[in-house]
Amino acid sequence: MLPVKLGEVIEIAADVLKIGRNVAFAEAEFRRKSDGKLAAKGRHTVAILPKQPNQEGEKIEIKNLQDLGAIC
């Protein structure tokens, strides 16, 4: 993996590898736009939670990380 200078443009490609009933997996590659060489690579694992009640007792469905703000 290579360094990226401050202000240098990078391209990010991300893929969802698998979405199961309880867990989802994704990975991303960060490449320098100038030469396409790999600067960083990462993986992300997310637990998929069942519907959670909000403060009023209503159940809400968590579809993405922004939905977590509704219960945090």
Automatic annotation (TrEMBL):
This is Thioesterase domain-containing protein. GO terms for molecular function: fatty acyl-CoA hydrolase activity. Keywords: Hydrolase. Belongs to the thioesterase PaaI family. Transmembrane segments: none annotated. Residues 3-38 form the Thioesterase domain. The keyword Chloroplast does not apply. The keyword Hydrolase applies.
